[in-house]
Amino acid sequence: MTTASGSLTATNIHLSFGANHVLRGIDLHVPQGTTTSVIGPSGSGKSTLLRVMNRLIEPDQGDIALDGRSVLKDNPDELRRRIGMVFQQFNLFPHKTVADNVSLALRKIRGLSRDEARAKALDQLDMVGLKHKADARPANLSGGQQQRVAIARALAMEPAVMFFDEATSALDPELVKGVLALMTDLAKGGMTMVVVTHEMGFSRNVSDSVTFMDGGVVVETGRPDELFEAPTTDRLRNFLSDVL
Amino acid sequence: MDTLQQFLDTFFDWQAMGQVLPTMLTVGLTNTLILAASSAILGSILGLVLAVMGISRNPVPRWIARIYTDVFRGLPAILVIVVIGIGLGPIFRHLTGVTSPFPMGVLALTLMAAAYIGEIFRSGIQSVDKGQLEASRALGFSYGHSMTLVVIPQGIRRVLPALVNQLIALIKDSSLVYMLGLMSGEREIYRIGNDAAANTGNLSPLIAAGLLYLCLTVPLTHLVNYIDNRLRTGRPERVEPDEAAAVVGKGA
User: Fold this and answer.
1) Are A97 and A134 contacting, i.e. CB atoms less than 8 angstroms apart?
2) How far is CA A71 from the centre of its chain?
3) Which of A214, A237, B95, B106 is the most exposed place for a label (fewest CB within 10 A)?
């Protein structure tokens, strides 16, 4: 699959909700065409970091750059059109068919005609193996199928970067594998990806880089074999012994 | 026996009912439906505006919606109809040359309906999962687009039963417009029943009016139950084989 991937860099990101200092100077660099896994305990700020990097939440301080160019002064809607996002709870639009979920943004944002958008949506659904469900409602799909539709919906916009926010955490165990396989294909195909995950197998075997966050800071970052084989901090050692 | 006969004559004089029925159906029913439907439609439009103002992040529209809703939900319908009808009637007449109080009746009913419908819409919109707004913003939709394409359609669907209840209330409240002194061709169901009862000294025409109201409202209440049930259980679906689960023998 051909993608127009880009590099993404977050520099010194700070964010507070009232007195709660959620992100305390985060630096994250995701080179073009690579996959970075972000791991860490619940409440460490991983999901919040994703939302700051596509400006669903505006940072109090710091900079975000796509392909080396700061995006904080641009229209945030434009930025989000270049960054696809997949959520833990899928967040498909329940009042629309599967095909309409995928084609909605193509029609309303890209300005494609109904027929063009549907054709593109069907191609995208074919890629995730769900073309035959095009006219079903999301509620009639399994969780794994819904998440694959959500991935197709994000990919249809031809994003430069894909975010995955615990994309398999809400799935029944037997459905996780299909979604992870799809994410692996994407990573291998050269998509730039940031994957917040509890799937240590994925972050270890698929990602190019792993970032461990705790308490709103990046504690360790490096190649997966380095981090998993030889963690240098107690915090990461403790975390790994809890989850592995 | 005399008492029973007197009771039947007073309330169920078929002849008196038969006399009033043609006018009640051709003039009264039409006008009642016009009053209720037009104020329901206009009230829904204004109500949607109020709902969107009520969830705005800007406090000014939020407060305007709040105050409007408190005022028009807090006043008796008859007071609003009389004050608007008698108070704004002359101004409206001056501006448009229309002498009929009928539009003022629609206006008063609309203003009250909007307050209730606005609250219904607002609760529906706010009950939509936050992830829906987040997902559409993440796709690159603006806030306005996200609301109109994704959030509001789902919110409205959920409150359809409450909206039909509001239509029932409007059908009943439209009877109060008789206070404004309607011309004979503008009379609604209640006024026609009331006039006939006054002329004949017999209450049967009002009973006929009551029965006609029930013919409108009872089916609607059952429609509410039907929609409510359908929304809760979903439309009947053919079961789709889940091949992803079947591979590992889920449910086997």
Assistant:
1) yes
2) 18
3) B95
| Predicted confidence (pLDDT) per residue in A115-165, tens digit | 999 999 999 999 999 999 999 999 999 999 999 999 999 999 999 999 999
Q: Cβ(B30)–Cβ(B97) under 8 Å?
A: no
Backbone torsions φ then ψ of A45, nearest 5 degrees = 105, 10
Pairwise CA distance, residues B202 & B199, whole Å = 8
Q: Can you give the pTM of this predicted structure?
A: 0.82
C-alpha atoms less than 13 angstroms from C-alpha of B57 in its C-beta half-sphere: 2
pLDDT (tens digit per residue) in B140-167: 999 999 999 999 999 998 898 899 999 9
Q: Touching check for A101 and chain B: CB below 8 Å?
A: no
The answer to whether the beta carbons of residues A137 and A97 sit under 8 Å apart is yes
A95 touching B (Cβ < 8 Å)? yes
> Residues A192, A34: contact at Cβ < 8 Å?
yes
Inter-chain touch B132–A91, beta carbons under 8 Å: yes
Domains and their CATH numbers in chain B: 2-236 (1.10.3720.10)
Strands (E), A107-191: 161-165
Largest distance between two CA atoms of chain A: 56
Contact B212, B171 (CB under 8 A): no
Both tokens of residue B217?
A: 């409202």
**Token pair recorded at residue A180:** 């992870």
Distances (CA, A) of B44 to B65, B122, B182: 14, 12, 25
Q: Do residue B135 and residue A93 have CB atoms under 8 angstroms apart?
A: yes
B252 interfacial to chain A (CB closer than 8 Å): no
Measured CA to CA, the distance from residue A111 to residue A104 in angstroms comes to: 10
Complex-level ipTM? 0.92
Of A56, A93, A154, the CB nearest to B137: A56
A122 C-beta neighbours (distance < 10 Å), count: 18
Residue B236 burial by Cβ neighbours in a 10 Å radius (0-12, 13-18, 19+): exposed
